[in-house]
Amino acid sequence: xxxxxxxxxxxxxxxxxxxxxxxxxxxxxxxxxxxxxxxxxxxxxxxxxxxxxxxxxxxxxxxxxxxxxxxxxxxxxxxxxxxxxxxxxxxxxxxxxxxxxxxxxxxxxxxxxxxxxxxxxxxxxxxxxxxxxxxxxxxxxxxxxxxxxxxxxxxxxxxxxxxxxxxxxxxxxxxxxxxxxxxxxxxxxxxxxxxxxxxxxxxxxxxxxxxxxxxxxxxxxxxxxxx
Length: 227
Known about the structure:
Elements: H1 2-5, H2 10-26, H3 60-65, E1 83-85, H4 95-101, E2 107-116, H5 123-138, E3 147-150, H6 156-165, H7 178-181, E4 183-185, H8 188-203, E5 207-214, E6 218-226
Parallel strand pairs: 1-4, 3-5
Antiparallel strand pairs: 2-6, 5-6
Helix pairs in contact: 5-6
C-alpha cells in the first residue's frame, strides 16, 4: 500500500529488483578484497564464503509472475530483501591512534545522522530526510557524492530516493543490494559500510553515502570520504 501511495508501479519495482540481481551477480567477485577466513570451534565448515544466493539471479519474466506478499498491493518477494542473521564490527580510530599505531585509514567519517518519521510505515522515506540533514553537516552537496549505498529492505526505498533527489541509478546501489544478497540482522550497517569502502577503493571515487532504515520509521546515514 505504501509503495502505491508514493506513486510507484509494479513495473518499476520489478525492473529495479531485476537490476539488483543482475548487478549483484556482476560484482560478486569484487567483494573478495574484504573477505577473511575465520575458525569457529565445532563448526562443520570453518570458512565463511560468498553467499551464492545472488548468483541465482531471477529473470525479469520470473519476477513479473510473482504474486504480491500478504497484505501488500504490488510488493512481491522479489522486491524485498532476503533475511539473514550475522554479527559484524568495524574499527574506528582517532587521528592520534592512527599516528601512534601506524595505521592507514580507509576513509574518514564526515557526518552521521539519524532521522525518525512520524509513523512506522514511513520508514521507506526516512532515508531521504536523514540524507538531507547529513550532507550539510558533512559540508558536501548531493551532486558531490559519487556512490549511494541505500539498504534495499524493499525496492521502494532506493526508488523513492532517486525519484525525490534526482540522483541517477548508476550512483545508487550500483553493485546490487539486499534484494539479491540479503539483509543480515546485526550486521547490515557494517556490511553496507564495507561495501561502500570497497566500491570507493576499486572505482577510485571520493565520497559515499550509506543509508539504512528501520521498521520503526527511522533511518541512519553515514557520509564517508576515501583517504
